[in-house]
Amino acid sequence: MVDMTQQTWFYILLRSARSTFHGTFHHALGWFKGLLGILLFLALVQLSAQEMQTVIPGPSPGNNESSLAAAVPLAPEPVDTVSLRSFVILYSDSIEPSWATSLVYALGKLERVREVYLWPEPVPQSTAPKVIAEALRWASLKDMGFVLYVTRTAPGKPESEVASREGSFDIHYRVFRVLSAQEIMAATFSAETPTQEELQNTFWLSLAAAMDTLEAQRRAGRLTIRGVPGSKLFGFTKAPIQLDNTGEATITVEIPGTYRYRAFASGYEARSGVLTLLDSPSVLQLEQPAQSPWYFESGALMGQFGDVWIHRHIGNSIWLGLGFQQYWIGLYFPNQEDLKYTSNYTNYFVSLPLLEPGIQAGYYLSDGLSLIKPYVSGTLFLRVNTSLLQLDPIAFMAISAQTGLEYTLLPKLRPFIELGFRFYPFCDGLYLAASRGGEVRAPSTFLFSDSWYVDIPILRLGVRFNL
Amino acid sequence: MKKIVVELFSSIVLLTSCWHPPFDPDVSASVLSARKLGDPVLEFKVSLPYEARYGYFIPCKFSYTQGGWITKEAHSLRITYVIFDPILKTGVILKKEQLNVSSFAGLQVFSHPNDLQVLYISHPAIKGWVRMSTTDSLSYVTTNNLFLGAGATLTWSGTEEVGILYIASYEDGEQITLKGYDMTSSNEVYYPLPPQLPAAPIFAAKNDYGAYLSGTLTDGTPVTYYWFEAGGPVQLPLGRAMTGLLSDGRLLADTGDRLYVYDKDGNECFAIATGSFKFSFERYDAVNSRWVSVFTRTLQIAASNNDEWDYLISIYEIPTADLEKLKL
Hints:
The complex is a heterodimer. By secondary structure, chain A is α+β, with helices and mostly antiparallel strands. Chain A has 9 helices and 24 strands. Chain B has a single domain, classed as 6 Propeller (Neuraminidase), CATH 2.120.10. Chain B has 2 helices and 24 strands. Chain B is mainly beta. The chains are: A alpha+beta, B mainly beta.
C-alpha cells in the first residue's frame, strides 16, 4: 500500500514536472519555480510516506492475511494508547453485512477508540465459540482490547434460534476482554428491521453506549534493549533512550503495547522496527550492522558535466567531501542556432579546459531511516584553467550552495537531485557573462556586477555509494 | 518506483543539457593577456542586432570606432564594415561580404595604412585580396593561377606607412610567382619551386630578409618555406602555419587561442595567450618612432529573449618591441 501510494506521488510529480518544463521552457524564473515545486513535492512524498505508517483507526476490509497485517497498530507514540480502546467485531451469519458495517462506524464514532476491526467473514452460529476463541488469540497478538460478538434471534429466543428475515427481532451481543479471555458483558435489545438512515444513526446506539463504558487495561512492564553502546532509540518514550557503555538500557513501558522504534548509532546502519510487547520483562536485541563512513559520489552538473567526490560522514547528519568538478567532457544538445556558428557548443560533446577541485560540507535534515532524505550542502571550488595551467584569470574560485533530496534506492545506493546556485566572488562578472558564449537555452539565468557573478538555479543529479 | 526515478532523472538531463557554464578559454586567455597590457586605449560597449552574433571586430587604423566585423558561421564567412557610436552604443553596417568557405584558415584582414574606411580581406576562397570600402564597390586583386597564399607587410617611408599586399601563385614551370601590390601598382618576383607545394595555402609575403610561403600539406602538416637573398627555399622549423610578418621581421603563427612569435629563421621565441584577444595590426608611432602592435578584444554578452546583444570592444596597444611582455 505504501509503495503504491508513493508511485502515485511520483507519477503526479513527474506529470507536474513535465508540464512545468513544457510550459515555462523559455522562462528561467518559471522553471526555477517549477524545480522548487519538485522539491516541495518530494518533501511531501516523504511526509506522506511517514504519515502512511500511522494507520488510522477503522475497519480493514479484505481477506484475512492482508487485513491482519493492516490492522497492526502502528501508533508511534504509545503514551496515549493506554486509555484507548480497540475492538474486534464478530457478527453471525444472521446479521446483514451492511448492519455489521454500520456497527463499525457506530463504534468508530466513540471517543478514545484506537481501532475497530471487523472480522472478515460472518460467523456461522454453529462455530461461534470456536471463532470467538480464534478471534481472541488473534486480538491478543495484535494488541486489541475487546472482542464483540453480535447475533440476531427471534424475539425472546436464545441465540441458537435464528430470527426470520422480516419483522421484529432481538440483537444479542457479548463482549470478551482479550487479556483475560473472559466474557465481561452480555446484553440484548429488541429492534425492527432498520432503515438505512437508522442503521447509520440510531440502530446501534444502545450497544455503542454499553461499549463506551469499557476501559482498556494496561500495566507497566520492563524492557531491556541491547545494541551498540551509545545507540539512540526513539519511539518507546517521549525522550530518546540512549544505550549505556555496555550497550544496554532498561526502561519501563506499558504492556501490552506495540511500539514503532528507530535506532541510530554513529558508524552503524540505522534500524527501525515494530515491537509488540505482551510479557515483562522483555529483551529487544538490536541488529545494527557496521556502516562505512565513506561514500563515493558521482554527479552531473546540469546533467552535463560529470564530477567525482569522496565523502566522510561524521555522525548521522554531517559529511565532509573532497573531489572535483570537471568540464573536459560534457554532454550538450545543440540547436539550429548553435550549429550555425563556430563556437564551443556545436556538438553533442563539449570539452572545456576547466577543472574545479573543491571541498564540500553537507548536513542531512532528516534521520538515516527516511526513504527520501533532504539535505543542504555547500561547496568551495578552485577553478583551474587547464589550458593556461593556472587558476582561471577571470574567477579563481566559486562557491555553490544547494539543497537536495537523496533517495535510498538500495541500502548502499542513493541517487540524489539537488538545486542551488553558484556564486563567483572576486571577479568581474561581465567577463563571466561573456564566457557563457551565447544564449543559454537551459532554464537558468545569471546575475552579475563588476565584482561578482551568480548562476541560478544550478541543478545537479547523481548517485552516492556507501563504500 | 525505480523506473519512475530513472524516468525523472532522464527527463531532467534532457531538459537541462543545453546549459553553458560561465567559462570560455578564449575569454579567460584574453583577460590574462589584457591584464599585462594595463588599460585599453579605447573601450566601449555597443548593442548590435542579430546578424552581429559571434562576430569580432578589427578596427581601422585611423579610427578605432570603425572597421571590419567578422562572423565565422558554420559554412560561411561574413565580413561587414561597421561604424560604432560609443555614445549611443550602437553600430551601423555599411558594407557586407559573404564568402562560402569550409575553413577559416588563411583569413586575413588588413587595414589600409593611409585610407580610413578601407579594409583588405584575404582568404583562399578569394584567391587574393578584396578591397572593402565604405564608398566604392568591392574590388579584387586576385590570381587566375594556382593560389599559394597571400600576405601583407608594412614599412615606414619616413613620412607614412607603406603597405604591400602579396599573392603567391603557381602556373607551371620551376618557379612560383609572388606578386606585390602597393595599393596603386604591382610587380612580380619569382622564386624557385619548393619541393612540395602546400595543399591548403595560408600565407605568403616578403620583407627585407626574404620571402615566406606557408600552408599545410595534404596530410595537414604545416610547412613554411623561406627564400633568402642568396637562395632557397629552405623549410623553416615552424610547427605551425605562419599567419603574419611583423615589421621587425619576426614571424607570427596565430592558432586562435595562441599567437606564437618566431624569429626570422623560424625559431620559436614565445607564445601569447590570445583567444578573444586578436592581433589586429601594427601601426607606426611617429611620435616615439616605433612600431606598435594593436590587439582588439570583442566580448559578447548574450541577452535572453532579445535579438540585440551587448558587445564589449576593447582595444589595446603595446610597442612591438615589447611583445615579449605578453609571454604566456
